[in-house]
Known about the structure:
Chain A has about 120 residues and is an all-alpha fold. Chain A is built from five helices and no strands.
Amino acid sequence: MTRIRRGYVARRRRTKIRLFASTFRGTHSRLTRTTIQQKIRALVSAHRDRGRQKRSFRRLWITRINAAIREMGVSYIYSISINDLYKRQLLLNRKILAQIAISNTNCLYMISNKIIK
Amino acid sequence: MALPCSSHSTLHSKLTFGSTSKTPFLGFTLKPTTLSLTQKPLQVRSQDLSIVPQEQRWMFADDEISGPDIWNKTWYPKASDHINTDKKWYIVDATDKVLGRLSSTIANYIRGKNLVTYTPSVDMGAFVIVVNAEKVAVSGKKRTQKLYRRHSGRPGGMTVETFDQLQQRIPERIIEHAVRGMLPKGRLGRALFNHLKVYKGPDHPHEAQTPIDLPIRDKRIQIQR
């Protein structure tokens, strides 16, 4: 059998992986085998966290809206306000409500006063 | 997306919504309102108009043309939004207050969960001073039965104390222990814990910070005698 060199096939594959992991810390961006493993873990985390991202942002918005609503008075609570929102068929979602709460709190107060009645 | 809730900009807040009559989203029309002076200097503006199709450009006011997109990027605090010297200071008198309920309120204020600008990864909370820590109360038989344990790390190094004994020895530790258990555990939690200042008597060295009374909503926090 003649001798066959494998050429640049493996090197090209590993360069791509190394480029992906070029900003990782320490040996995770330097050693080939470690780099391959870390790239896989990074992609797995990214995939899983794309679903988690939606959850965590919704959580954050709810906390912020809750804080804003509670500043209005003693018996103003997020859950009751959201219920009123649905009853009055107001289609604003929590993201928008949270941004309104931060940028223009008076607007949010006006909205919730209107829906309480 | 512009809401018909316009606000005139004051010192810092540059956000204005255009007031329009055609808004299909709300079930009622809002009258324009003036925004009172906000304490936090938030530079919040809407998106770039060039990506909006021609027939929808009526929805945006003139001021909203340039700047970050506030409707698609959730607000995140900048460094100037959480400077330690600008944070609020609160003071609580712990006399005859139930330990757990008091600590829960304190932890909420320290973490910043009562603020609209709450962010879990950033220290947005306030400072809290607790005075008269030795007079904090507990219900039931906890005064003699609640145990505080600590371990030195060596075998046989567990020390157990009752609430009573600890209150005589180091009364501040009771409230600190309770609040620490209610703050998040981690680097940020440990940094938050430093915002709690507990003192034994009625005096505290923070007069210069002019602390306000901590607003407590819990009705059962005061022990009834």
